Amino acid sequence: MPGGAEPNPELATRIAKKLISGIAEQNAAIDLNALETDLEIQDHTSALFYGDDDLGHEAVVAAASKQS
Description:
The structure is a single chain. This protein has about 70 residues and is an all-alpha fold. Helices cover about 65% and strands about 0% of the residues. The protein has one domain (about 10-65).
């Protein structure tokens, strides 16, 4: 095999599972409410913000629920 060691599917599987597990743990630790609040504050402080027809979180969730 050019460049070194032979492929090791078992090792690759273990590494992949460890990486996926780590990503899942990191994603689960994200406080989405705080993230949403931070993004909303950034939106409202932007000079480009247009909020006349801006929908709140509850309105967006309700509209999405009706479509699914």
